[in-house]
Each structure stands twice: as structure tokens, then as C-alpha cells.
Amino acid sequence: MVIEINPQQQRKDNSLTIPSPTFYQALLKKIQELHGDFGAAAIREGFAAKYFNERTRIAIVRARHGPHKLITSVLPFVKEVDKKKVSLVTLYTGATMRQCFKFILNHQQKKINEICSTLQSEEEKVAIKEALLKFNSTQTLS
Amino acid sequence: MYYYLDISFVNQDITAALFKNHIITSIKHVFGEIAAAIPFDVVKYDPSEIRAIVRVTQDHYVKFRGSLTLAGYYQGKPCAYIVHKVSPLLLSLLGDSRTYVH
Amino acid sequence: MESVKGYFDYNVTDKCISNNFENIAKQLYDFGYHTIAINQTIDESLLEESISEGKKKKKIERQDIVPSPIDAKIIKGCDKLKILNRLTISFTTQDIINRIIKSPNYRKYHIIAAQPESQQAFQFTCTNFEADIFTFNPSTKPNYKMQRKLYYLLVERGVHFEIMYGPAIEDSTKRKNIIATAHMYHSFGKSRNIIISSGITNSFLIRNPYDVINLGLLFGLSDGQAKDAIQNNGRNVYMHGSTVLEFVCWKLY
Question: How many Å lie between the alpha carbon of C78 and the closest alpha carbon of chain B?
């Protein structure tokens, strides 16, 4: 089971740098608190933080099929990662990485469309599209 | 649906409140906060023998009994929970076909 | 062929025995375990010691690295309690195995358990080694990767996988390792051929057989499998152990 998460910081706006191991540790700690030794042991098999994009703040976490429920139940309770305040939003639960990437693409597309509807110049639209799709440096919105 | 357990505690004399507290702490260690909210009642407590009758709902029975088994220490000293009888019917804790002397 | 009955407890450590054997055996019998096995472990540190001592002497006197099995006397009031001897071999390479098999004390043990500590040792147990039980050390995470093929290889050879509940009671990290390994057996092998044993070091850790069955449920076993784990599979281990012994005896004579 693969879970997709969108962490949003309370203070800063863009680009969140969280190394994968700390995120993994933070989740593990929370599960230890909420589900005890049993939960921590049950998910340890096959538990991995697979993908993390700094710009869009999207992460993919992998878990086995049974214990994935434990992780999804814990995600709303995670308040702090790497000493920064954070709130997590679960976007999608899928069975393979490919499905998750498909979802991320759609998600980005929707976001771009929302932003583009408020903008006027074509050039900026194209630039933003490229920026978000290729995960390059951020563009300032006029 | 409730399950009634007849359990005794092997270590030292403790009061009913501490007994319940210790069980909750054991559940928290093994199964976490979410499970520590398992509603259970100490129906009867005998302080001289440290023996109690505890009632749990059917859904939580497995976790409850598992954490009783895995409870190892009370305030640093080794301890044990011995479950004598379990039954969904309170009356059958008094006697059953295994222990009945014909 | 002697018959065994009652619930089985295959891992009563020798530390437990040296202090107060009668008491503990009686407790086990009262709880319902009618067949127990006293466990002695050997690991590679013993092999190194004997090698270094051998070099000092001029004549090569091979010491017997396998300790002789503890002699269990019959205890009053527990006539029906059957006591077996079990040897656990913890190893990372297969060199030590050859020496162990040749030692005369090896044949006196009823049950042999293998505790591989590395991928190579794990491969060796799956293919060549004649063990009855497959164990792991709960203090550390396993160093080897379990695979479905190897699991089923062991199942076909009649080897049973042991899960100890004693360390789970004492220590939080050991508890996590034990539960993680148990879940791993479930996901790779559907929890076939599993036995649950106590691994106790003192008398406070003994639990009711019904409590142990409930623990089996927590370890990912189904209802029927959990009961089997202390009953039928235990009997299977005894059968496996005694037939291998007879085969070895036939080989010699």
C-alpha cells in the first residue's frame, strides 16, 4: 500500500527540506506512541519513505497491505517533523508507485489550471507549467 | 457482548485503583494510546488474594488478554498476570465442567 | 516410539534450570505443559576458545565443544512430565557445524535448533543442515533476508519456526523484534509450521497455554494455527527429532 502525503508548514510558504530518514523516524515515533510496540513492529516490515519532492512538498510512503491502516490512522496526528511544525494531508492511497505518480501528475495539473485561471499572460502560464512539472526553481507570481 | 476474566496478580499487594492503572499502562506499552482507551471494568476485587474479575467487550478481548500476558514489570519488579478462567457468562466463572468434581 | 502429550514448551533455558529446577518444572507441569525441552546454546565464541587452547598444547587434543546435555531427574509429583534435551547452535559460517556434528555429545540431544546469524548461514540451514527447529535471536534485527522459496524449502524438510514469548514480556525492543519476525513469517509463509515456546529465564515469565494461544493470534496466526503451535506442531517436532536420531544411529552401526 502506498500513501501520498502533502505536508504544509505553518510559517514558510515554499520549499520544505525534510530528509527522508527524519520523516520516516517521525512517523515511526508517532506510531509507537499511538499503537505501541505492536504497531511499530507490524509496520516495520516493508515500511519506507519512498519519494519526497521539496518544491511541491509531496511525499510517498510505502507500507504492507494489512498494517497500512495503522499508518493512515496515525497521519492526522503527526504535528512535528524534524523540529518544524507540520500538518499532513493524505491525498491518495494506491497500490503501486505508478498509480501514485499518475495521481501526482493529475493533481499538479489541476493546481496549475487553478493558478492559470487567475493569470493573464500566456508566457507566465507556460513558465509556471514548466516550473511545476519539471520541479525546477520557483517562479515569483506577479 | 462482554467477556469476564478471572485474573490474579503475582507480585505484591496493591489496591484496586493501582491494579486498574497498571493494566492500562501495560496496554499502552504494547498497543499504544489508541488501545489504552479500551473500556474495561473491575467487577470485583479481592485485595487479600489480589484476585479480580474484569469485564471487557468482545471486540477488545484479544488485545486486552495479549497485553495482560505481555505485562512484565510493575515498578521495576517482575510480575505476572495469571488468567484462571474466561467466560462470556459471569456465572460460569464459579465452576465449569473441567473443574467440577463429580 | 514413546508417545508425547500435553502442551509443549520447547525452550526452557539452562540459566533457568541451574537455579531452581524442581520449582520451575512443577510450575510448568501445573500450567499444563507436559513436555518440555531444556535448551543449551553454543555459539562461535566457544570454537575460538578451543582453537586457541589447542595451539598451546603440542599434541592436538580435540576438546569437545558441545557441552554434555543436562541430566534431568524425575521430579516427585510430575511423573508424566517428559523432559527433552535441546541444543541451539548459533552460527554465521558453516565451519563450526562440521566440528559439532562429529562430537560425541551431539548425538545425546533430542532436538537440534539452528540459529543462523548471516545470509550465508541461512542458506546453509535451508539446504544442508539437519535441524528440527529454526530460531532467531530477539535482541537484534535479523541479518538475513527471508524469502518465500527458502521458507517453503524448510517447511518441506520438516523444520519448524520458533517464536519465543519470554523475551517479549521482558523487554520492549525484543518485543518489537519478535512481533516483526512473527509478522514476517506470516507474510512470507502464511505462518505454516510455527511453534511458540517460552525461552524463559526465570519463573515469573511462565504463562498459561491459553494465554500463549492468544499471543499466537497477535503474532498473525489464525485460531487453529495458534493452538497447533503449542500442540500438534510440538508433537511434529518431537517426531522429526527422534526419526533423525534413529537415522543417524543407523548410519553408525
Answer: 20
